[in-house]
Design a protein that fits this description.
Layout: H1 16-34, H2 38-43, H3 49-61, H4 66-73, H5 78-95
Helix pairs in contact: 1-3, 3-4, 3-5, 4-5
Length: 102
């Protein structure tokens, strides 16, 4: 019988899933930097530039779907969040880095 190689079957501390987990938890740090509480995400508009900047970062640096990002950041439906987010990311690439105010 063939025995599987178990020596290399361990989780790396910097695996993509860990990085995704750090960034999702880092959303709290972004909110803290902006001076917001998590409840304030729901009160802000769906197209708020700060919310879209956080969403763009999550989309670029994690494997989260737009549907899950929209739910976490209260961006509306996944379809409307997709339109807003890709418009934001497209204009961000053309205009250079955007500065997000508080």
């Amino acid at each position: 019988m063939h025995k599987p190689n178990t020596k290399n079957n361990y989780c790396y501390p910097f695996s993509p899933s860990n990085r995704s987990h750090q960034l999702v938890n880092g959303t709290g740090k972004e909110l803290e930097r902006l001076g917001w509480r998590r409840e304030e995400l729901a009160a802000r508009r769906k197209g708020d530039p700060a919310k879209l900047a956080i969403a763009a970062r999550l989309r670029k640096e994690t494997t989260l779907t737009i549907k899950s990002i929209a739910a976490r950041l209260y961006l509306g439906t996944s379809r409307s969040a997709h339109v807003r987010l890709h418009g934001w990311m497209g204009s961000d690439a053309l205009a250079g880095a955007k500065t997000v105010g508080t």
